[in-house]
Amino acid sequence: MRKIGYIRVSSTSQNPSRQFQQLNEIGMDIIFEEKVSGAAKDREQLQKMLEDLQEGDIIYVTDLTRITRSTQNLFELIDLIRRKKASLKSLKDTWLDLSENNPYSQFLITVMAGVNQLERDLIRMRQREGIELAKKEGKFKGRLKKYHKNHAGMKYAVKLYK
């Protein structure tokens, strides 16, 4: 079992020393540091940490906003960590403890997952309603076809086929 710290600041001008201090107080085996926006998809150190994650490891963050900005990404991250039989702990958000013996965290994660699913379903429902309304008004034509019968690539493919 390793204690793994993850530190992120949004830019190179910000100072991560407070996060280092908090994590070092509880003793980390390794700390991954990132200087990039939380909204950025490509976070090299986060990916490296997740790839190196082993069964029994515990990832520590000072605050959940350091590891992810969106609820959906948090659930994807929690799912990945659980599949690797590891844990995630936030020093600030003490309600989050992915260990099996914390029923409160399990309950909150289940509720948050339900809210997240509801949010996705409502977005789809509004999208369908918008499409139906646009169709009634004659504004919705669907996606433009990538290839049509007069497309040069399509003509060439038909020629090759014959």
TrEMBL record:
Keywords of the record, alphabetical order, are: DNA integration, DNA recombination, DNA-binding
Query: Domain of life of the organism in this record?
Result: Bacteria
Q: Which CDD domains match?
A: SR_ResInv
Q: Which Gene3D superfamilies match?
A: Resolvase, N-terminal catalytic domain
One example of the protein's molecular function in GO is: DNA strand exchange activity
Q: Please tell me whether the keyword Transmembrane is annotated for this protein.
A: no
Active site feature: 10
SUPFAM superfamilies reported in the protein's UniProt record: Resolvase-like (SSF53041)
- Report the transmembrane regions from the record: none
Can you cite a GO biological process for this protein?
A: DNA integration
Q: Which PROSITE patterns match?
A: RECOMBINASES_1 (PS00397), RECOMBINASES_3 (PS51736)
Which Pfam families does this one have? Resolvase
**Resolvase/invertase-type recombinase catalytic domain mapped to chain residues:** 2-138
Which family, according to the similarity comment?
A: Belongs to the site-specific recombinase resolvase family.
Name-wise, this protein is: Recombinase family protein
Recall the taxonomic lineage recorded for the source organism. Answer: Bacteria, Bacillati, Bacillota, Bacilli, Lactobacillales
